[in-house]
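Page 37, continued from 36.
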């Protein structure tokens, strides 16, 4: 055969099968454009030159890898639908005299046509929208759009090569699939899977145990570090449990429904349940995939939106005032008056005034906690769940700041706890017992609001403060905690003035010696916007991609099911069922089956809420009401999109099965 004939047959096949090809091509174009845009941003020359550019570059590079992995997986997945629905057509070619070599040439030309269309259109769209993506990223990061816009030959080449390799492997898969099939198998491929599946109770029970295990881990995790370490284990258990229960549990449920004669022998229930049973194994795997994708959308988008929306709260938790100055040394700071005067002079030179100033000494030591006993950490035996931070302040500083003189003895202390409350009468700190009283006005408590580890704040006598330092220094040696001095205050200038003042103050402190560090809330906010804005940008990208793949899987599932069910519904209509009865049966099947993944995804998210909340606290995001709002809004929006996908794909299903 001539190449022109192969090309003509390939073009005809793509055109005639546009119901299957068009969504596939659109998804490929969408994936190519997204991959190029992220690759372009990651490779942009202006990115490393901006503040926080290295972090953003790492985020974008990570996003390119993630999108590449998922694009590869789901393009292979959707290709399997294409080749399945083409096998009968290819079998006809074989019966009419075309050899498998001829069919391979047709498939080769189809792959070339698909690759050329998707790469050309996808890259054009990606290049056009790359400028918009840059502007969007700059808007999210709260920065001027100073990143250079240009077409990146490197990104074009990487995108073209990556997707060309995907198309090559899908072609190889298709060729092998056709080669190992006999003509009669190709003709009857659409009828495969007609044998009724059996409910595998072992798999169902293992799936239930796995799912409950994942839920148990998510509910019982008590600290952020454990949440981070156990998150992927919980995810794997939930994924396995979801697939197992969808594949085996759904079959068992359908068979139980079939035993209910009053329910089963209604026309719309009879056709829906019997049709689902004959292909439930394939259906269930696809539906489980939809459920996992939906969960990923909800978790990814709600988490990244919460991080971005809570940036100001996070900055305020880290630094409650405009400027925070820390000093760490093996000896207490003695020239605090000189340091304060130097800071005041630097602020005045910048045209701003200092107000609400507070300074104090403190000592922060990580301890192993068991109830009211705080002991020294043993790196060989102490678990992360038992860690706590003890922060001590000398009585003299407390009295100077609050105007209260507690007159503490060496075995007495005032205390307060971060984020929790407890009525302690006494406690043991590093083998010394203390009688304690609760106090809500310990000033250093504000510094540690962002800590994820449990923190106890203590006010002790000056002599006891020094002995705590000496004892822990002897125990830990070179790993001891230093004396710390903290000076924090507000500035009354604009953001630009305060930022300039912070730089001048930092420069002035360098003349006071080593050990000083300066933090500016405005600079911190800018860094947070870059860090969490980048995550938000990636989260939106991934969310859109997951939604797109979810829609495609649902669409192909409806098309596949509709094509398989058409003959059955034709028989039902020939024996007396009306179009309305057929439509009711379709709705009964589609509504039950395709909303099950969304329901399961929401349940997964509900159980994961506590664990995700703990993980977010690692990023200093502790605003639980905000996270709850983000979860609720994300779920509502995704449910609306999911319903729209269901509505349009159900119409397609009805058109296929209706005569």
């Amino acid at each position: 055969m001539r190449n022109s004939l192969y090309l003509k047959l390939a073009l005809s096949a793509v055109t005639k099968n546009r119901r299957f090809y068009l969504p596939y091509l659109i998804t490929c174009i969408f994936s190519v454009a997204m991959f190029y845009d992220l690759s372009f941003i990651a490779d942009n020359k202006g990115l490393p030159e901006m503040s926080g550019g290295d972090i953003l570059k790492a985020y974008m590079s990570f996003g390119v890898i993630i999108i590449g992995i998922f694009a590869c997986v789901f393009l292979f997945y959707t290709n399997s639908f294409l080749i399945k629905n083409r096998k009968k057509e290819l079998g006809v070619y074989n019966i009419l005299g075309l050899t498998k070599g001829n069919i391979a040439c047709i498939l080769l030309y189809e792959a070339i046509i698909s690759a050329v269309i998707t790469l050309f259109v996808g890259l054009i769209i990606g290049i056009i929208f790359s400028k918009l993506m840059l502007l969007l990223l700059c808007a999210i990061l709260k920065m001027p759009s100073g990143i250079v816009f240009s077409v990146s030959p490197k990104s074009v080449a990487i995108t073209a090569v990556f997707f060309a390799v995907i198309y090559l492997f899908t072609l190889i898969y298709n060729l092998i699939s056709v080669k190992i099939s006999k003509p009669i198998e190709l003709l009857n491929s659409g009828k495969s899977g007609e044998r009724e599946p059996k409910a595998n109770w072992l798999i169902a029970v293992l799936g239930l145990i796995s799912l409950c295990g994942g839920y148990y881990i998510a509910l019982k995790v008590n600290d952020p570090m454990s949440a981070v370490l156990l998150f992927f284990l919980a995810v794997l258990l939930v994924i396995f449990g979801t697939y197992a229960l969808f594949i085996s549990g759904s079959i068992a449920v359908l068979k139980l429904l079939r035993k209910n004669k009053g329910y089963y022998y209604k026309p719309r229930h009879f056709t829906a349940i019997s049709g689902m049973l004959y292909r439930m194994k394939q259906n269930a795997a696809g539906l489980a995939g939809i459920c996992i994708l939906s969960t990923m959308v909800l978790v990814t988008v709600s988490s990244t939106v919460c991080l971005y929306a809570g940036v100001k709260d996070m900055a305020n938790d880290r630094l409650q005032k405009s400027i925070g100055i820390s000093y760490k040394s093996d000896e207490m700071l003695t020239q605090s008056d000189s340091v304060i005067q130097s800071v005041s002079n630097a602020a005045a030179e910048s045209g701003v005034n200092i107000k609400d100033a507070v300074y104090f000494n403190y000592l922060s030591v990580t301890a192993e906690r068991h109830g009211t006993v705080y002991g020294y950490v043993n790196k060989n035996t102490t678990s992360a769940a038992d860690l706590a931070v003890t922060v001590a302040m000398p009585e003299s500083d407390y009295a100077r700041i609050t105007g209260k003189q507690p007159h503490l003895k060496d075995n007495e202390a005032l205390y307060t706890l971060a984020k929790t409350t407890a009525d302690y009468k006494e406690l043991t700190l590093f083998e010394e017992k203390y009688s304690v009283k609760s106090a809500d006005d310990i000033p250093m408590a504000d510094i540690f609001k962002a800590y994820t580890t449990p923190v106890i704040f203590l006010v002790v006598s000056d002599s006891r403060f020094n002995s705590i330092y000496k004892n822990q220094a002897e125990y830990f040696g070179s790993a001891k905690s230093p004396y710390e001095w903290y000076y924090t205050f507000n500035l009354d200038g604009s953001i630009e003035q305060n930022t300039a003042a912070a730089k001048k103050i930092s420069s002035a402190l360098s003349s006071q010696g080593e050990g000083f560090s300066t933090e500016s809330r405005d600079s911190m906010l800018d860094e947070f916007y870059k860090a969490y804005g980048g995550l938000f940008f990636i989260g939106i990208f991934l969310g859109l991609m997951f939604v797109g793949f979810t829609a495609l899987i649902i669409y192909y599932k409806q098309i596949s099911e509709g094509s398989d069910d058409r003959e059955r519904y034709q028989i039902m209509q020939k024996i007396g069922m009306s179009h309305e009865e057929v439509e009711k049966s379709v709705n009964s099947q589609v509504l039950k089956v395709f909303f099950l993944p969304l329901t399961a995804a929401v349940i997964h998210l509900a159980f994961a809420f506590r664990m995700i909340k703990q993980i977010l606290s690692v990023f200093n995001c502790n605003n639980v009401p905000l996270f709850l709002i983000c979860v609720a809004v994300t779920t509502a929006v995704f449910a609306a999109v999911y319903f729209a996908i269901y509505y349009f794909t159900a119409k397609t299903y009805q058109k296929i099965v209706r005569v």
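The two ends are 38 Å apart (CA to CA). Flag for discussion at group meeting. The beta strands are 323-329, 354-370, 373-376, 387-394, 412-417, 426-429, 432-438, 455-460, 483-491, 516-520.
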